Amino acid sequence: MLALAGCAEAPHPSPSATALPIGITASVVQLAGDVATRQAQVQIHNAADDTLVIGKVELEDDRLDGLAERVVAGETDIAPGRTVDIRVHLPAVNCDAADEGTTMLEVKFTLGAADSIARMAVEDSLGFLSDLHRRECSTG
What we know:
Blueprint (H helix, E strand, L loop, with lengths): L23 E6 L2 H4 L3 E8 L5 E9 L7 E3 L5 E3 L4 E7 L13 E9 L2 E9 L5 H10 L3
């Protein structure tokens, strides 16, 4: 009996389904130019050694009446050491929710040979979602 062994690359473990891999960070911001178009930006920084490919991007927040999703469908390549802003369209606000809340990011990504989906809380460093909610839900 003849046994053949190949020299295949070892499989890459998939990153955690609840967090982005080490070296990848994300935050959400709304700049002045985003307000009129009702958009925000998910800023993703790649400090890993491989190119990061971002697919689906969704923000979920009780203050929003639905998901904030990518404005332009498709994939975005982020080279090592780079930061890319991915625009999302903001749905109407949910005035039954409190002004303060937690924003959850869900992102489908590929890093090296690993495909995964991360879901985690993301920082709104400018506090724009609370401001948007207060502004649009104020009675007066």
